[in-house]
Design brief:
CATH class: Alpha Beta
Helix content: 25-40%
CATH architecture: 2-Layer Sandwich
Order of helices and strands: EHEEHEHEE
Largest sheet: 4 strands, mixed
Number of helices: 3
Number of domains: 1
Number of strands: 6
Radius of gyration: 15 Å
CATH superfamily: RutC-like
CATH topology: 60s Ribosomal Protein L30, Chain: A
Length: 132
């Protein structure tokens, strides 16, 4: 396999403040398309319906778990499409993303507001692409 090389295109001040890269260029590695991930219970089985922050944490933990089974981690995410049900949660999501991607190597991203999800209690869904 060809060694992976990742270049994060430096964003402008607004893009950096919103914790996303305008583009990520990858050569080599394996591309992994991850299904949309949601969570209404945490790792201990506790109900987290209606708790946006806990759902963000649970979803990123599930994505990381999937990537680890393939030999990767969250740091291998290169793109994500984030669906939230209330635009008032956008800034909180951005803050959580900054905490998760401390290196400043943010995936390319879209943040979209939707009216409903497949099940009651869901507040967001993240679909992503990784290169491992």
């Amino acid at each position: 396999m060809i060694e992976k090389k990742v270049d994060y295109v430096q964003g402008n001040a607004f893009q950096k403040s919103r914790a996303f890269s305008p583009a990520v260029v990858v050569s080599g590695g394996q591309t992994v398309w991850l299904a949309g991930q949601t969570a209404t219970v945490d790792a201990q089985g506790h109900d987290i319906c209606g708790d946006f922050e806990k759902q963000v944490d649970a979803i990123f933990a599930l994505i990381d778990q999937t990537l680890r089974t393939l030999g990767g981690s969250l740091s291998d995410l290169v793109s994500m499409t984030v669906f939230i049900n209330d635009p008032r949660y956008g800034d909180l999501f951005v803050q959580k993303r900054k905490e998760i991607f401390k290196s400043g190597h943010f995936p390319a991203s879209a943040l979209i507001t939707v009216s409903q999800f497949a099940r009651p209690g869901m507040m967001l869904e993240i679909q992503s692409v990784a290169v491992i």
